[in-house]
Amino acid sequence: MQQHFVTDRQSRPISVTISIVLAIITLGYMLPWMIASMRGKSNAGGVFFVNLLVGWTIIGWIAALVMACTSHQVVGFRR
Questions:
Q1: What residue spans of 1-79 are helical by DSSP H?
Q2: C-alpha span between 3 and 59 (Å, rounded)
Q3: Which residues constitute the domain of residue 60?
Q4: pTM of the predicted model, to two decimals?
Q5: How far apart are CA 49 and CA 79, in angstroms?
Q6: Angle formed at CA 65 by CA 8 and CA 9, multiple of 5 degrees
Q7: Could you give the 3-state DSSP secondary structure of residue 76?
């Protein structure tokens, strides 16, 4: 029997579309949120707010980018 990991990845096609448009309009400012949305991160909302509120500081933008690029959390196993 083969086991598969179950992660916290979520599909949100509307969020992905909106994040792509906003990343283009803001010339990359909302790029961390776009990455989080495209990867299906469960914390995409948190990435959005960190990016929106403190992303204007370079440290805040980098923090949002790190949040977006971290690996998905394993929530269980499936056989």
A1: 13-25, 31-39, 44-54, 58-69
A2: 39
A3: 4-78
A4: 0.87
A5: 37
A6: 10
A7: strand
- What is the per-residue pLDDT across 68-79, written as a single tens digit (0 to 9) for each? 999 988 888 877
- Report CA 75 to chain centroid distance, whole Å: 17
Domain total for the chain?
1
Which residues, 6+ apart, have CB-to-CB distance to 57 below 8 Å? none
26-54 pLDDT tens trace: 999 999 999 999 999 999 999 999 999 99
Task: Give residue for tokens 């707010």.
Answer: 49
Q: Two tokens at 74?
A: 């394993």
Q: Evaluate whether 11 touches 22 at the Cβ level (below 8 Å).
A: no
Distance CA(50)–CA(65), nearest Å, equals 10
